Fold each of these.
Amino acid sequence: MNDRATTELQVLKLRRSDLKRCAELERVLFPGDDPWSWQAFASELDQGHHYVGAYLGERLIGYAGLAVAGRPPHVEAEVHTIGVDPEHQGRGVGGALLRALLARADELRATTFLEVRTDNETAIALYRKHGFEIIGLRKRYYQPSGADAHTMRRPAVGTETGG
């Protein structure tokens, strides 16, 4: 199943050799908000954070990362980033990446948090679809653009409140 010769989408552990491509995508996706460098991605991997890539064959078309803090039963996770090549957006790649991150959070029974631009309606809809709710607002969170962010939370597996 890890045969990268296939042209079907695969979500796999991010390879260090793909960090340059991640930085290239960052510059395209987040030109006004201090895109991450190769070194920033390398630091995330060096710290042991959970990063995955979306691959079509050998080509990286998206990436996502999750940080985990604490130990059971008090574990929290934070989505650090999700990015998808503009040529492949709207085809379920972001959802596949998010599900891979949430699978890791669910293994740990972690409450998961993230920040998202308040004007990114597509991402907000994706996060809501996967159980996130808006719990706060961070004014001027993204720099240097000064864009605001919503803080969103997804309860740990098994702790959802009924309704």
Note: The two ends are 39 Å apart (CA to CA).
Amino acid sequence: MAKSANVNVRMVPEVKNEAEAILKEIGLAPSAAIELFYRQIILKRGLPFSVVLPEPSPDVENLSKEALLDLLREGIGDLDVGRSEEASAVFARLLDQR
């Protein structure tokens, strides 16, 4: 089928550039990605992913003493079972994602 329809979209340039850089890395043209997105909308009869607000992070300044201690205990428990990472590794990964 010949492609003859156009889609014009205005968006934040940084979002466009970052997304297109990722698409380039995986070898997918932006137009192909948009068509893929539209095809998934048709197949799923809606958005092909969940659209929800993220869970709010705890407001540490307004936590009760006991709630703060619970969070600290949870963090210590993560350390005890190896669910932790060196801060330098986290920051390096964050910088690589920019």
Note: The longest helix spans residues 65-80.
Amino acid sequence: MFLLLLISIFTFILACVVMLIASILSKKTILDREKNSPYECGFDPKNSARLPFSLRFFLIAVVFLIFDVEITMLLPIASILNYTNIFSWLFTTLVFLLILLLGLYYEWFQGALEWSE
């Protein structure tokens, strides 16, 4: 127990020292090149913040979010293959992939219907 407390205190002191050194060595300027450039999301920081943002940026962000969720759900499926019954694993994987494909087709057909109108 004493060793655990000692390691925790040492880790806390080391983290504080590293943050102190980083704040001392960091270059702080009022006119920073990154602060004067437009934000990555498409807003111009010198104009009004009430302007509507780009729909293209929003759609790209949603696509990346969907792919991140899919990857976080697909990776454990591959890692539990050795620990489960092959038939239940196969059934669960196929149902999950079928749901993903149905969602993809639904979105594709919705987009095709919107473009045709």
Note: The mean pLDDT is 78.
